[in-house]
């Protein structure tokens, strides 16, 4: 059992310095490089004498320097906030205003934005690392430990303001030990690293790989977006463990050579982030009959995932809709009714997670924290907002959301937040966002129903282009609806609120 | 309907944008009109509607980046 994530990773560097930790399309870095560079960065951060409790924003895409920045921050006692370089400037400002960070490390070039905190640019980072080569490792007592925040990941919030989920070192330890113990991963696994670091699915590849002395094989977004290059690259990675959303797997399954003959080392598949459909899992099982396929489930608030099940042929036969598995050993998952009373096995209700990987709450947001987090049976508990049932042997079945949160290709989206952004666009009087589901219960697109204001355009489609262009300045691209429908009025409930459920039923009839 | 009109109609639907008809040289990826899931939808619709076969392993993005390129590509496959 691992007790300290940072020490564990540094131990690999000491015992096996030349082992490769990061392989970015053939450009490789070793554990020793990770240790030396992050030690140098940590020493620099410590000298800056920043407020210890404040996190550090880390902005960029899939680059080795991102890992250096993460480790450098936690070694200096600061949590890091990973922010993807595709984020619009307004998102950065919002995160800055909410999280009140002490600094920003910009591995990628920042958009036009005035940050009020010191920025360490990529050039500066390279300089810090070079000047710091060979300095002694910083004092380990300054490192993030115990209940200190390790990372903070921002997710969609209902009011249009994102929420920062605080994950402590102890939360992460509980998660990582489960990954090491329960998924029969190979020794020093070579793991696919495809998800952006701002998405906590990436934690499922980064920390198991690093603590087990394994290798992260990176698929940058430029590669995953260009299918020809993607399928040329995949066989060169010698992957053993696959981590992705089911949506990304659906793309890969379109290629007939994506199978065990062409990827013989690939023996473990781990899915999280959205529902794994029966169709995807059974197609994959046919392509890789000997591999172990795991469906996992969990919200960012409980550190990536908290339940899992191996999808065997027996499971495929027994469940037309796949289960989300059994809770990890140190965690209890229970189903309650609207009065917060535990319901009998088999009855549907809201899923509650109680255990050591449950977050302490949202940073600088006591209201939202109080409404989602509480104490139960002496442990930290989180109200998931997911409807579920639990069988007598503890198998959990997912039944959908009890509110208006959706997952689109793995991205978690509050429909209210999208409403807010569409409604704030020019030419829009009123708007509401409706998810369109495919036959496997997965959201395939978001549709905005819009009551328009006066505008200069001849065609709806030109109006849509103008709204989308405006939204791109403020909104994460995955939150921009794929379709816009213009109506004279939106349906209302008896209480005079916009009747989203009615439109959801109409769209999905 | 000729191939060009058919392709433009499919493109307009998958991108939900008029730009693809107004500017046949617009880069649909750089302009954020199509992401990778959208590309899959485009490939599937072109296959279904036009009866062509587009192997995903041969989908080199730069060759499919503008309406004009897509039309030429599709015409060469019919």
From TrEMBL, chain A:
Subcellular location: Cytoplasm
Name the record gives this protein: D-alanine--D-alanyl carrier protein ligase
Protein family according to the UniProt entry: Belongs to the ATP-dependent AMP-binding enzyme family. DltA subfamily.
Residue intervals of the AMP-binding enzyme C-terminal domain: 417-497
Function: Catalyzes the first step in the D-alanylation of lipoteichoic acid (LTA), the activation of D-alanine and its transfer onto the D-alanyl carrier protein (Dcp) DltC. In an ATP-dependent two-step reaction, forms a high energy D-alanyl-AMP intermediate, followed by transfer of the D-alanyl residue as a thiol ester to the phosphopantheinyl prosthetic group of the Dcp. D-alanylation of LTA plays an important role in modulating the properties of the cell wall in Gram-positive bacteria, influencing the net charge of the cell wall.
Major localization class: cytoplasm
Record-listed E.C. numbers: 6.2.1.54
Binding, D-alanine: 200, 304, 497
Residues that, per the record, bind ATP: 155-156, 295-300, 386, 398-401, 497
Organism whose genome encodes this protein: Dellaglioa algida DSM 15638
Record's catalysed reaction(s): holo-[D-alanyl-carrier protein] + D-alanine + ATP = D-alanyl-[D-alanyl-carrier protein] + AMP + diphosphate
InterPro entries: AA_adenyl_dom, AMP-bd_C, AMP-bd_C_sf, AMP-binding_CS, AMP-dep_synth/lig_dom, ANL_N_sf, DltA, DltA-like
Domain AMP-dependent synthetase/ligase: 13-362
Pathway listed: Cell wall biogenesis; lipoteichoic acid biosynthesis
Pfam families: AMP-binding, AMP-binding_C
Automatic annotation (TrEMBL), chain B:
Main location: cytoplasm
The keyword Cell wall biogenesis/degradation is assigned to this record: yes
Molecular function terms, GO-annotated: D-alanyl carrier activity
Keyword Cytoplasm found: yes
Pathway: Cell wall biogenesis; lipoteichoic acid biosynthesis
Cell compartment(s), UniProt: Cytoplasm
Pfam families, A to Z: PP-binding
Record InterPro entries: ACP-like_sf, DltC, PP-bd_ACP
PTM annotation, UniProt: 4'-phosphopantetheine is transferred from CoA to a specific serine of apo-DCP.
GO biological process, one term: cell wall organization
Gene3D superfamilies linked: ACP-like
GO cellular component: a single term: cytoplasm
Residue stretches making up the Carrier domain: 1-78
Residue(s) carrying O-(pantetheine 4'-phosphoryl)serine: 36
Source organism superkingdom: Bacteria
UniProtKB keywords: Cell wall biogenesis/degradation, Cytoplasm, Phosphopantetheine, Phosphoprotein
HAMAP family found in the cross-reference section: DltC (MF_00565)
Family: Belongs to the DltC family.
Role description: Carrier protein involved in the D-alanylation of lipoteichoic acid (LTA). The loading of thioester-linked D-alanine onto DltC is catalyzed by D-alanine--D-alanyl carrier protein ligase DltA. The DltC-carried D-alanyl group is further transferred to cell membrane phosphatidylglycerol (PG) by forming an ester bond, probably catalyzed by DltD. D-alanylation of LTA plays an important role in modulating the properties of the cell wall in Gram-positive bacteria, influencing the net charge of the cell wall.
Name this polypeptide is given: D-alanyl carrier protein
Gene source species: Dellaglioa algida DSM 15638
Recorded name of the encoding gene: dltC
């Amino acid at each position: 059992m691992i007790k300290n994530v940072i020490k564990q990773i540094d131990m690999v560097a000491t015992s096996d310095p030349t082992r490769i930790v990061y392989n970015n399309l053939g450009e490789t870095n070793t554990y020793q490089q990770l240790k030396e560079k992050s030690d140098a960065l940590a020493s620099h951060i410590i000298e800056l004498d920043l407020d210890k409790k404040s996190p550090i924003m880390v902005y960029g895409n899939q680059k080795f320097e991102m890992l250096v920045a993460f480790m450098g921050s936690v070694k200096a006692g600061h949590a890091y906030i990973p922010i993807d370089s595709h984020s619009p400037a307004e998102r950065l400002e919002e995160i800055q205003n909410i999280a009140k960070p002490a600094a920003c490390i910009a591995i990628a070039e920042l958009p036009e934005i005035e940050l009020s905190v010191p920025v360490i640019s990529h050039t500066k980072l390279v300089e810090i690392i070079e000047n710091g080569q060979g300095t002694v490792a910083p004092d380990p007592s300054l490192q993030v430990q115990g209940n200190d925040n390790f990372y903070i990941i921002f997710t969609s919030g209902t009011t249009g303001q994102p929420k920062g989920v605080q994950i402590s070192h102890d939360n992460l330890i509980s998660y990582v030990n489960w990954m090491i113990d329960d998924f029969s991963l190979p020794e020093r696994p070579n793991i696919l690293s495809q998800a952006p670091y701002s998405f906590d699915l990436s934690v499922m590849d980064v920390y198991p790989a690093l603590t087990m002395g394994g290798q992260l094989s990176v698929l940058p977004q430029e590669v995953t977006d260009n299918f020809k290059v993607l399928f040329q690259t995949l066989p060169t990675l010698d992957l053993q463990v696959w981590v992705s959303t089911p949506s990304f797997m659906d793309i890969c399954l379109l290629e007939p050579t994506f199978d065990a003959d062409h990827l013989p080392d690939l023996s473990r598949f781990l899915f999280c982030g959205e529902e794994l459909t029966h169709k995807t899992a059974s197609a994959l099982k046919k392509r890789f009959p000997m591999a172990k396929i795991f469906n996992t489930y969990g919200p960012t608030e409980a550190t990536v995932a908290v339940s899992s099940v191996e999808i065997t042929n027996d499971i495929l036969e027994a469940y037309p809709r796949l289960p989300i598995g059994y809770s990890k050993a140190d965690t209890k998952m229970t189903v309650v009714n609207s009065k917060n009373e535990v319901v009998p096995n088999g009855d549907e209700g809201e899923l509650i997670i109680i255990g050591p990987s449950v977050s302490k709450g949202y940073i600088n947001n006591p209201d939202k924290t109080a409404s989602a987090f509480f104490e139960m049976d002496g442990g930290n508990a989180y109200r998931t907002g997911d409807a579920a049932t639990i069988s007598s042997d503890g198998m959990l079945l997912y039944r959908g959301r009890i509110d208006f949160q959706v997952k689109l290709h793995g991205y978690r989206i509050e429909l209210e937040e999208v409403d807010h952004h569409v409604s704030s666009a020019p030419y829009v009087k009123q708007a509401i966002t409706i998810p369109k589901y495919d036959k496997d219960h997965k959201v395939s697109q978001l549709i905005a129903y819009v009551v328009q204001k006066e505008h200069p355009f001849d065609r709806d489609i030109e109006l849509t282009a103008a709204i989308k262009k405006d939204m791109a300045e403020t909104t994460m691209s995955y939150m921009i609806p794929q379709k816009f429908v213009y109506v004279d009025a939106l349906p209302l409930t008896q209480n005079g609120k916009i009747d989203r459920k009615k439109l959801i039923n109409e769209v999905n009839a | 309907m000729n191939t060009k009109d058919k392709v433009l109609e499919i493109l307009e639907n998958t991108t939900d944008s008029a730009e693809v008809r107004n500017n046949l040289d617009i880069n649909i990826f750089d302009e954020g009109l199509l992401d990778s899931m959208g590309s899959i939808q485009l490939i599937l619709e072109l296959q279904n509607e036009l009866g062509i076969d587009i192997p995903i392993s041969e989908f080199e993005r730069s060759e499919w980046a503008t309406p004009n390129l897509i039309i030429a590509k599709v015409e060469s496959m019919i």
